[in-house]
Design a protein that fits this description.
6 helices; Nucleotidyltransferase, domain 5; three-stranded mixed beta sheet
Length: 135
């Protein structure tokens, strides 16, 4: 869970470098049902995480599109404003900040050392797939 939260933090930092400036994370899907994982994301990224008020985001999205198509809402933002409910908002735990900052620094350091291996690993995967397809 922490490794994925670290990946999210790297993405958020990249967005911030572009000047967009994320202020909170919004989670959805199966992982959003886990309060623990959402709290880890808040702690690692040092920003609030908003959990969904509805259980199934894909179904809600389809319902919003159908409502717009049927003329019940003038556009998608209007459907969102009417149909989306925020769930619990989790704030980062200040007591976890130092530990996660150190763990994140280690994660970044390790990633930088092994990132060139990813293309090698992908080549092996392609060779394995090609071998399976010819068998």
């Amino acid at each position: 869970m922490e490794a994925i939260a670290f990946m999210i933090r790297r993405d958020v930092e990249g967005i911030n470098r572009l000047g967009v400036g994320a202020k909170e994370l919004r989670v959805l899907g199966g992982g959003a049902k886990s309060r623990l994982w959402s709290q880890i994301k808040a702690d690692v990224c040092q920003m609030p995480v908003v959990m969904p008020g509805q259980g199934e985001a894909a179904v809600l999205g389809a319902a919003m599109l159908a409502a717009v198509g049927a003329g019940l809402h003038r556009d998608i933002p209007a459907a969102v404003a009417c149909m989306v409910r925020e769930g619990e908002r989790l704030e980062p735990d200040p007591e976890s900040q130092e530990a996660y900052a150190k763990a994140f620094a280690l994660y970044v350091s390790l990633y930088e050392r092994v990132k060139d291996l990813y293309s090698f690993s992908a080549a092996i995967d392609r060779m394995t797939l090609a071998t399976k397809e010819t068998s």
